[in-house]
Each structure stands twice: as structure tokens, then as C-alpha cells.
Design a protein that fits this description.
With 217 residues, the protein is mainly α. It has 9 helices and no strands. The protein is globular and about 55 Å long.
């Protein structure tokens, strides 16, 4: 799924608007737009460590607040307009029918836990709140899963990027090169694993949702 902002635009927004840029981009991504909220959070955390111009605590707070607010907007859209709205307009923001059905299947399979754990997966970070609303997940249950997921996600990626950058500053020479190569290789392996399983999950989604759509005999 493509993003509406590239890394250069993310950096420009961050340097110009600071914490508000983090809050707004994360909120819009959580409400259903394909924006790089996680990139904004990680980039801001690294920038805070290297420059000292931003507070890591405020960065985490802005990201968590944006995640919670954005997810509630997405939940309301899903609850009020449902799947027909997503099927008709999802393609405008990179959510095709296959990805929509995959998200629907994952929600059916794991229920409210998707709201929490979906915060850590790019596709579900955009779809989870919309699907929770469309499936009429009870509002209190949604809010609890949503708030917990947003806070934990912001803390892990925010503090993680901040302190990993601090450790990286102490590494020199060949060890630094090896660390970068290992990180790139690991990232590629995870990406390949996700892509392989995404195809399998899409096939499962088609089968399960086709069975659900059949009239009872």
C-alpha cells in the first residue's frame, strides 16, 4: 500500500510543526488514510535523540493521542456507513477489495484483539477501527482495546527508536556496518514472510467469507 507522504515530506512536516505533525499524521492514518504514522513516530524519536530539539515523552504522548483520536473517528465512520462505504471508496486511499476482505476476515477470526494488535500491522492499523465500527463492536470494549493499543504502540516504537539510536551512537567502524546489514537483512526477511502469509490469508479470507455469504439450507 502506497503512502500519501514520502520521507522527505515527513521530515519537512516534523521540522515545521513538531508535535502537532506527529499527532495529526498518526490520527489521519488511524482514521483510514494511508499515511506513514509509524515512520513519523520513529523519525521524530530519532530526531529527538540526535538533536535534543524535541522531548521523547511529548512525542510518545502526541502519537498515542493521535492513535486514540484517529481510531475513534475510523470507528464512527465504519459504524455509520459500514462496508458499503469502504467497498465504494476504499480504492481512493489504496484499500482494494482484496485487502478489505482480508481485514474483514481477520476481524471475524480474532475479534476485538485485532483493535489492539492491529496497531502494530500496517494494513490493520488503517482498517481495524473501520472494521470494528462496521461490525458494531461495543463502544466501551473498542475504546479499551484502542486506548491500550495506541499507548503501547507509541511507547514501544517511540522509546525503542530513541534508545536504540542512543546505543547506536556508541558503535563504531565495522560493527556498525554489520549492524546495519543485519537490520536490513532482518527487515527484508520479515517483509518476505508478511507478503507470503498475506497471500495465504487472502485465500483463506475468500473461502471463509464465501461460506458466510451462502444462504442457510
Amino acid at each position: 500500500m502506497g503512502h500519501l507522504l514520502d520521507q522527505g515530506q515527513v521530515a519537512a512536516l516534523l521540522s515545521t510543526y513538531g508535535y502537532w505533525a506527529i499527532f495529526v499524521v498518526v490520527a489521519l492514518e488511524s482514521s483510514g488514510l494511508p499515511l506513514p504514522g509509524e515512520t513519523m513516530l520513529v523519525g521524530a524519536s530519532i530526531y529527538a535523540r540526535l538533536s535534543g530539539a524535541l522531548s521523547i515523552e511529548a512525542i510518545v504522548l502526541a502519537a498515542a493521542g493521535g492513535a486514540i483520536v484517529g481510531d475513534n473517528i475510523g470507528y464512527w465512520i465504519g459504524r455509520e456507513f459500514g462496508y458499503r462505504f469502504l467497498e465504494r471508496h476504499g480504492w481512493r486511499v489504496g484499500i482494494g477489495v482484496e485487502k478489505l476482505r482480508l481485514g474483514q476476515y481477520l476481524f471475524y477470526k480474532w475479534g476485538g484483539a485485532i483493535v489492539f494488535f492491529g496497531r502494530f500491522v500496517a494494513l490493520l492499523r488503517i482498517l481495524a477501527a473501520l472494521l470494528a465500527g462496521a461490525n458494531h463492536l461495543p463502544i466501551l470494549r473498542f475504546f479499551l482495546f484502542n486506548a491500550a493499543g495506541g499507548i503501547v504502540w507509541a511507547m514501544i516504537f517511540g522509546y525503542g527508536a530513541f534508545y536504540l539510536t542512543a546505543g547506536f551512537e556508541k558503535v563504531h567502524g565495522s560493527l556498525a556496518v554489520l549492524g546495519v546489514l543485519a537490520a536490513v537483512g532482518g527487515g527484508f526477511a520479515l517483509w518476505r514472510y508478511y507478503k507470503i502469509n498475506e497471500a495465504r490469508l487472502m485465500r483463506e479470507a475468500e473461502q471463509v467469507l464465501a461460506q458466510r455469504s451462502k444462504p442457510a439450507e
